TrEMBL record:
This is Urea transporter. Keywords: Membrane, Transmembrane, Transmembrane helix, Transport. The chain crosses the membrane at residues 30-50, 56-77, 98-120, 140-161, 168-188, 208-230, 242-268, 293-313, 334-354, 360-379, 391-412, 432-455. PANTHER family: AGR155CP, SODIUM/PROLINE SYMPORTER-RELATED. One of its GO terms (cellular component) is plasma membrane. It is found in: Membrane. It comes from Ogataea parapolymorpha (strain ATCC 26012 / BCRC 20466 / JCM 22074 / NRRL Y-7560 / DL-1). It is a multi-pass membrane protein. One of its GO terms (molecular function) is spermidine transmembrane transporter activity. The lineage of its organism: Eukaryota, Fungi, Dikarya, Ascomycota, Saccharomycotina. The keyword Cell membrane does not apply.
Length: 501
């Protein structure tokens, strides 16, 4: 993998494609890349857990919720690309539509989310290796980070795109082999199957609750992942994007369903109970009893999907930092060092304190549910009145609203604060706290943003009447200022204020 990545990086050593490669990729390579970006090693535990808790109902809700966002990039991607043809991440369009302060606000959440995903990926491959081999996985984690860092350092996004395509194709072949071996090695106890059919094969309350929570959480959170946007902008045509995203959505849905089924099968083999505390381990518990060749295939499969996802996140984080904080104006060598800087804290935290940090993992979903909906309203001319201040007040105000809701629902402020972290998880049909939080976050974000806009516009109109200024439509003023380079150079404060009020 290292030799292949380095060879590709040296052969295609083009500074212009280090951060992005807009308008160059066709449907099938895009599909393989979306697959690689969407499915890390974590799918081997998360989908089995929900299957063990909420049965086939919960599993299908989860897989469909994970597949839909990939397809949605083919619908919203062309809209963003037309408005921001020179960009390659969502924050660039936000910069042009809502101004630099709002872009930095979104960028902070984006980079934080991708860091959590990198940390989660390293933790997932650590567990997979230790579960399958019984060996300490730390050396393997370090090797994975070093390998991806070397070829990403040399080739950036371009080499990440090519290696992801190869890795995804290789992983899909291994998947077929693994499924055959897996299916022929499992022996189901029919008495246990009949005894648990009502719990695992029928619709249930938690499954219906997740039918709302998961689409909201995953669709909005995927918008924080710059890797998806880099691939969206890389599409040669809108048709290529549609083909690539559609294929990837279908394949991802099928694969995630297959890897989630062990959460049910482990109950039918007698290795687990329904709602087992070790439900997330079902996949590996069953694999550990299989022939060595099956274990070997699954191990290679795990490393393959982990590497593909990790280098995508590494490249995407680097591109985001370069674009959002340095406006792509720093020397390419400094950008390459960002690749290393991104990797170091990831591996250190993964080895030292991953369990503690990942307890706040779900806050990224709640933040995205608060922030993304009102930002995307900016795509419509009906909401041209929205400005950066409205977006930020709306998003942060929604989080405050969730805290207030949690305090009222649980009866104390401490639990209200814990709800912001989704501390109790989302897999309980008796706790409506998380459900309420994901209702309040998107709706509250929009309503509070509208309220802010109403107050802001009223204040500006009063000010205009007093001063006698005839204000231009707000989006036109913003575009005028963005294009007025000399004006922005003379006043940093004026530059920051673009798009804000």
């Amino acid at each position: 993998m290292l030799v292949t990545g380095v060879a590709i990086a040296l052969y295609h050593n083009d500074k212009k494609t280090f951060l992005s490669s807009n308008g160059t990729r066709t449907g099938l390579p895009l599909a393989l890349n979306f697959i690689a970006s969407a499915m890390g090693c974590g799918i081997l535990t998360t989908y089995t857990q929900i299957a063990n808790i909420a049965g086939i109902h919960g599993l299908l809700v989860y897989t469909i919720s994970g597949a839909i966002p990939i397809f949605l990039f083919s619908l919203f991607g062309p809209m963003i690309r037309r408005r921001c043809p020179e960009g390659f991440v969502l924050t660039e369009w936000v910069f042009q539509r809502f101004g630099p302060v709002t872009a930095l606000y979104l960028s902070a959440f984006t980079i934080f989310t991708m860091f959590l995903f990198m940390l989660s990926e390293l933790t997932a491959i650590e567990y997979a290796i230790e579960a399958l081999t019984g060996l300490d996985a730390t050396p393997a984690m370090v090797v994975e980070c070093v390998v991806t860092t070397i070829y990403t350092f040399l080739g950036g996004f371009h080499v990440s795109f090519i290696t992801d395509a190869f890795q995804a194709a290789f992983v899909l072949v291994l998947l077929v082999i693994g499924v055959v071996g897996y299916a022929t090695s499992i022996h189901i106890d029919m008495d246990l199957k009949h005894a648990t059919e009502d719990q695992l094969l029928h619709a249930n309350k938690l499954g219906w609750m997740l039918l709302y929570i998961l689409p909201v959480a995953i669709i909005t959170n995927d918008c924080f992942l710059s890797g998806f946007w880099l691939r969206t902008f890389a599409a040669k045509t809108d048709k290529d994007l549609y083909i690539g995203a559609s294929i990837a959505a279908v394949v991802a849905g099928i694969v995630c369903t297959l890897v989630g089924l062990p959460g049910i099968l482990a109950v039918w083999t007698g290795d687990m109970k329904v709602y087992d505390e070790n439900g997330s381990n079902a996949f590996f518990i069953l694999v550990s009893k299989m022939d060595n060749w099956v274990i070997g295939v699954i191990l290679i499969f795990s490393i393959g999907i982990s590497t593909a996802t990790f280098d995508s996140l590494q490249s995407a984080t680097t591109s985001s930092i370069s674009n959002d904080f340095f406006r792509n104006k720093v020397n390419i060598m400094w950008v390459r060092f960002i690749v290393i800087l991104v990797m170091v804290p990831s591996i250190v935290v993964a080895v030292k304190a991953a369990a503690n940090v990942l307890q706040i993992y779900l806050i990224a979903d709640l933040v995205s549910a608060s922030v993304i909906p009102i930002i995307f309203l900016g795509l419509s001319k009906r909401f041209d009145f929205l400005r950066g201040l409205d977006v930020m007040v709306g998003g942060l105000g929604a989080l405050v609203a969730v805290f207030i809701y949690g305090t009222i629902y649980y009866g104390n402020a401490k639990e209200g604060a814990r709800l912001l972290l989704i501390w109790n998880g989302i897999y309980s049909d008796k706790d409506w706290g998380a459900f309420g939080a994901f209702v309040i976050a998107p709706i509250g974000g929009c309503l509070i943003g509208f309220a802010c806009a109403a107050i802001r516009i009223s204040v500006l109109k009063i000010k205009d009447k007093i001063t006698g200024i005839d204000r231009l439509p707000e989006v036109e003023v913003q575009q005028e200022l963005l294009e007025d380079d000399e004006s922005l150079k003379k006043s940093k404060l004026k530059a920051l204020a673009v798009g804000l009020v």
